[in-house]
Design goal:
Largest sheet of chain A: 7 strands, mixed
Structural class of chain B: mainly beta
Distance between the termini of chain B: 40 Å
Oligomer: heterodimer
Strand content of chain B: over 45%
Radius of gyration of chain A: 13 Å
Number of strands of chain B: 11
Number of helices of chain B: 0
Order of helices and strands of chain B: EEEEEEEEEEE
Strand content of chain A: over 45%
Largest interface: A-B, 22 and 24 residues
């Protein structure tokens, strides 16, 4: 059983399109995150949700909108995609907000053409 | 904000020992983490330090000095499969307790 699963694994799309990435965790964790890893492998936090509530919202364009229907799911919707959005997006979860481990999904490689 | 610095690349020989350093500046420090990331894969947890000193876990050890804002990851008896990127991450109250990662150190283990 996959602990943190995100879909799709690869996403190739044109500039200006709208796309979504889905994430689900079956670990019973309360906190979920979205991270972006750029071409230089720099992993940067975007959002964090605790029990469906947004607790961290880093400086991210408002074209990015996270949605958490329940604490096991955190989806990421991106409007009007731009070339600079090309990156690998990782979903992650943890038991709480101040715990040892993050469990990462396998990543979604987004390519905007 | 946080400044987290680590070397970009390192090379070491199979069977040897390598030390990857990480320095950081933050307020409300709440823990330092090391993650391993193989190419094309997700990061996986290696170690966690919140108090000063050395934490040992098999071939991997991690050290923390909070007063110096310094940590290192020590890898012993290097194996080819240890070739990966090693990410230093800091948790702090200033960042809402989320992990903020350094840019990673790409380690190449050669025969």
């Amino acid at each position: 059983d996959t602990a943190v699963s995100q879909t799709p694994k690869y996403l190739v799309t044109q500039m200006g399109n709208d796309k979504s990435i889905k994430c689900e965790q079956n670990l019973g964790h309360d906190t979920m995150y979205w991270y972006k890893q750029d071409s230089k492998k720099f992993l940067k936090i975007m959002f964090s949700y605790n029990n469906k509530e947004l607790i961290i919202n880093e400086t991210v364009p408002n074209r990015f909108s996270p949605k958490s229907p329940d604490k096991a799911h955190l989806n990421l919707h991106i409007n009007s995609l731009e070339l600079g959005d090309s990156a690998v997006y990782f979903c992650a979860s943890s038991l709480g907000t101040a715990v040892e481990k993050l469990f990462f999904g396998s990543g979604t490689q987004l390519s905007v053409l | 904000g946080q400044n987290i610095d680590q070397p970009t690349e390192m090379t070491a020989t199979e069977g040897a020992i390598v030390q990857i350093n990480c320095t950081y500046q933050t307020s409300g420090f709440n823990g330092l983490f090391w993650y391993q990331q193989h190419a094309g894969e997700a990061p996986t947890f290696l170690s966690y330090n919140v108090l000063d000193g050395l934490e040992e876990k098999g071939r991997f050890s991690s050290f923390l000095s909070r007063s110096k804002g310094y940590s290192y990851l020590l890898l012993k008896e290097l194996q080819m499969k240890d070739s990966a990127s090693y990410l230093c991450a800091v948790r702090s109250s200033a960042s809402g307790y989320a992990l903020n990662f350094g840019k990673g150190t790409s380690l190449l283990v050669t025969p």
